[in-house]
């Protein structure tokens, strides 16, 4: 998967390297594209990430904010559009060694936003990717009233609002249904 190739050493923190709280503001410049559910999107500006890690009772609470500019495509007319991402993230990191001490119900309850880490390494990469993906609308539009493309010939109806195709072909398999509607 494409997103698994996205890495940044700036998003990796060693548990032993900070006392109680660590705050960082970083800029990721080497990510050029991100895989979204509907398309691969170009990253148009460096990704700015601010995060805080706080140790509490064998857990690390992570919270942060991600900002960047993406190039998406309008779901109706397919024109490229720019979309500003400004998304927060929160999660709890627990050392995998403590997982075995949790009951099954505690494990299921903790699945909501809990990530287990190994070898004292806390990697926020997936939280940053997740924040970007969650910020993008399911159906990006260039404008709310985008008219899209003609279903027959593909003409952009925003640029040609009076366009009409003369051939309104009906799938031959649906002709019996059309006859029923005419009766």
UniProtKB/TrEMBL annotation:
Domain of life: Bacteria
InterPro entries noted in UniProt: YceD (IPR003772)
Protein's name according to its UniProt entry: DUF177 domain-containing protein
């Amino acid at each position: 998967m494409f997103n698994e190739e996205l890495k940044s050493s700036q998003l990796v923190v060693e548990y032993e390297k900070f006392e109680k709280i660590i705050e960082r503001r970083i800029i990721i410049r080497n990510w050029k594209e991100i895989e979204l559910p509907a398309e691969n999107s170009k990253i148009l500006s460096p990704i700015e990430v601010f995060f805080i890690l706080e140790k509490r009772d064998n857990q690390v609470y992570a919270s942060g904010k991600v900002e960047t500019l993406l190039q998406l495509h309008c779901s109706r007319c397919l024109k490229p559009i720019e979309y500003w991402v400004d998304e927060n993230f929160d999660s709890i990191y627990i050392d995998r060694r403590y997982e075995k001490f949790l009951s099954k119900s505690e494990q299921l309850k903790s699945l909501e936003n809990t990530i287990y880490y190994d070898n004292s390494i806390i990697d926020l990469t997936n939280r940053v990717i997740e924040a970007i993906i969650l910020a993008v609308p399911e159906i990006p539009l260039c404008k709310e009233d985008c008219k899209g493309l003609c279903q027959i010939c593909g003409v952009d109806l925003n640029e040609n609002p009076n366009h009409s195709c003369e051939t309104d072909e009906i799938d031959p398999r649906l002709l019996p249904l059309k006859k029923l509607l005419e009766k």
